[in-house]
Write a structure and sequence with these properties.
heterodimer; A: alpha+beta; about 30% helix; about 40% strand; globular; B: mainly beta; 12 strands
Chain lengths: ~170, ~270
């Protein structure tokens, strides 16, 4: 019964939360050269929801701007980077929150993706907030091993399921 | 013994040297998925009698997905009497089975295979399915990138078949060989990136060796090259291949390589 109540509450939080992704800051790994960076840039530009990509060649980083009101899916970023031949080393996503309660292990859902707070101070989030994606494939391997040590506190982290993300508010 | 010292000397000195787009060898990395590349390789090789052989090898490359890429290549040359002739072609496939990425570094491993057909005469003991012999090659490549330096090495088995319809492979010669390569390259320019339009300059040096399985004859070549990347999309390679030693018969081991390459990103969506 308690679970159902929690799930129901989470469901409403999700709906009321109504967050939106406006921007993503990506650091790609596995590359140095400008040809590799351009390949990544071209792949990112091929995502329908992407409005603009600003590359930073020296840091193999990209700022990805999404079209207003578009249903951006961050798994597209990962698959496009991998199509270019490289990996995601860091992905920081800017959410525009509207009264979102941040609580470790609590979640909200937008555009069929579920985001669970992790390693985050409890707060009510409003406006643009940067969150870092902590799941495998969105951070470097070394960091993944570090975070995996917190698995007892965050049981859902081990599931690694599609469209379920763990986020840390920065 | 001197050869060993020479190689050791080169390795030590050249570690200071390119990027992972080599001129004489393929890296374990693949081209971007859903992209098409065109390449034209030109080789001017000097025959012992002073004649200059011109080989032209146009190539079409396709990145199917992040793991698989395929090439189709044609072989044209004026080596035979009668001027330019289309002598053959080849199909090449590469499968990247391991990839570990970190900030400005990676380690990759790949398997590849090539099948070639050629109708030119068989004129040397060296086995070369790129433009000389009908046959096949299967190999393994490992490539490590650390910031601006890339190191790559490969080993392959190469088997020559008859150059049909007119030339059978001489039964007294070794029809198979092992090939070994070692490549290092370094991104020299620009020191700091400002845009995709900047020209990039890579310097590289490669060692290419072969050992014939039946008679144990071998050769080792060195291939220094300079590479210009234009608009982060086009490549111009200028290289020279020089035999360091050979115990097998080769008709034209030394010469210039001039290679042009252009990448069409996201040719398929």
């Amino acid at each position: 019964m308690k679970k159902i109540v929690i799930l129901t509450v989470l469901f409403f939080v999700a709906v009321i939360g109504n967050a939106q992704i406006s921007k993503a800051e990506l650091t790609a790994t596995g590359l140095t050269c400008s040809m590799c960076s351009k390949a990544t840039y071209k792949q990112l530009m091929s995502i329908a929801e992407v409005e603009k990509v600003e590359p930073d060649l020296n840091n193999t980083a990209f700022i990805i701007y999404f079209k207003n009101g578009s249903a951006a899916n961050i798994s597209d970023i990962k698959s496009k980077v991998e199509d270019a031949g490289f990996s995601v080393g860091e992905l920081v996503v800017t959410f525009n929150f509207n009264n979102q309660q941040a609580e470790n292990n609590s979640s909200f859902t937008i555009n069929n993706s579920t985001y669970t707070f992790m390693d985050t101070k409890s707060a009510t989030l409003n406006g643009d907030k940067k969150v870092k994606i902590l799941d495998k494939g969105y951070i470097v391997e070394k960091e993944y091993k570090q975070i995996s040590k917190m698995i007892e506190k965050y049981p859902s982290y081990a599931t690694n399921s599609k469209n379920v993300y763990h986020i840390k508010v920065l | 013994m001197n050869k060993i010292f020479l190689i050791a000397f080169l390795f030590i000195h050249l570690n200071a040297f390119s990027q992972e787009l080599f001129v004489f060898t393929e890296p374990a990395s693949n081209m971007p998925a859903k992209s098409i590349g065109i390449r034209d390789m030109n080789a001017l090789m000097y025959e012992k009698d002073g004649k200059l052989n011109y080989h032209n090898m146009p190539e079409l490359m396709w990145g199917i997905n992040k793991k698989w890429m395929v090439h189709a290549q044609g072989f044209i040359s004026n080596r035979q009497e009668g001027g330019f002739e289309v002598e053959g072609g080849s199909f090449y496939a590469k499968y990247r089975f391991f990839s570990e990425d970190d900030i400005q570094s990676h380690f990759r491993m790949a398997l590849y295979g090539r099948y070639s057909f050629n109708r030119a005469d068989i004129h040397q003991q060296e086995i070369e399915t790129m433009g000389h012999n009908s046959g096949y090659e299967a190999g393994f490549i490992a490539t490590k990138l650390i910031h601006k330096v890339a190191i790559s090495s490969s080993i392959s088995y190469e088997r020559a078949l008859d150059n049909k319809p007119n030339y059978t492979f001489p039964p007294t010669e070794s029809n198979s060989a092992m090939n070994y390569t070692f490549s290092v390259g370094k991104l020299m320019l620009p020191k700091v990136y400002t845009s995709y339009n900047q020209m990039n300059v890579n310097l590289m040096i490669e060692l290419l060796g072969q050992r014939l399985n039946d008679n144990k004859k071998s050769y080792l070549d060195i291939g220094p090259s300079v590479q210009f990347i234009i608009n982060s999309q086009a490549r111009i390679d200028i290289g020279y291949r020089q035999q360091l030693y050979s115990t097998m018969e080769r008709t034209a081991p030394n010469g210039m390589i001039f290679k042009l390459e252009y990448l069409f990103f996201n040719a398929f969506r």
